[in-house]
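Hey, weird one. I pasted the (wild Malaysian banana) hypothetical protein sequence into the form twice and got a warning about non-standard characters only the second time. First submission, copied straight from the form history:
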Amino acid sequence: MGFWSLFPVASTPIVQVLLIGLLGAYLASGYSNLLPHSARRDMNKVVFTVFTPSLMFASLAKTVTLKEIISWWFMPVNLGITFLIGGILGWIVVRILRPPRHLEGLVIATCSAGNMGNLLWIIIPAICEQDGNPFGNDKVSGARGLASFSMAIGGIYIWTHSYSLMRNASKIYHASHISCHAGVIERHGNDQRVSTDQENMLSLPVEVMEEMADNQIDIPLLPNGSLHGEKVNSWDKMKETLHSIVEELLAPPTVASIMGVIVGATPWLKSLFAGSSAPLRVVEDTVKLLGDGTVPCITLVLGGNLTQGLRRSVVSNAVIVAIVCVRYLVLPVIGIAVVRAAYGLGLVPYDPLYRYVLMIQFGVPPAMNIGTMAQLFDVGQEECSVIFLWTYVVATVAVTVWSTVFMWILS
């Protein structure tokens, strides 16, 4: 399959994302004002709790089997490598360019977390449907299964690793915001009085206080590591850490991915949901119908946030260029080396389509779910929109070029 014949296939999903994003920008602009900040925030909550879990469960329960999961065992390892190397490169970018502290998590997340589901779900089957592709036209069903499995495993990484990064960034951002309005409680003997700064905090608008409560912002510890003078021992810190890990693993998208894998890998459970004669087919169809709204909603919100990012942004051009270089220059080259080494060691089967998916996981733009997290935690929304604008514009060419290179290597 030649370069120019591949170009429309690889660029179509990226162009679709940009077009829907432009629509979201128009809806959020003053010309329409149908998608204000409050509406985008509420839409993201629905995407997080309903649409994304539905998409993951429906895709996995229908297309994945136990045999395929066993044969695809290297994919979780491959995705872990992308997150590990991308995270290291993102940390280096942060150390060198030193963006504002509350944006460090965003930079690392965009370098490490790629669009492992939504984009691959469109690209991979579309390539297999083209005549003359190196994988064969009979691979469309397998392509959907690979895309679903990639989305599920990538979703688990994103909703744990990236979710933690964005939540910590939110705590840093809102803690610094609170410190501008609140003072510490001053004690004089047995009498207690509230400082002027804390009175100012208590007089903040109700909307601001509700926003702080919605984001579950913790009060910063005092310099001695205690809260209101109470020392926090190592056992309490350990319990807090375990609680955070469990909370991240119990995020709706992660739970839905695990349930989808279990249903898909268990024949008698799968027969209840998937198939024309399945007794619970209506449940599968309903969940799939809900999941179909994930990509449009995420992309509309992304475009809506872009209207804010164009007006003001703290992220520098150097940071944007660094993220683009990490995602489209360094990671794809490393991906080729990793997959070829794994194939040489016998860790990956001959299947060219499977190896293509492993390679392209290194060359996709940042995960759109990062924008959902920025909206959920109310941190770096404008900066995230600007980063996404340029990374997805560059992806129109970069993903096409790397797709051609990967298929040339595998043909």
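That's the output from the first submission. The warning seems to come from a hidden character in my clipboard, not from the data itself. The chain has one domain: 3-182+193-410.
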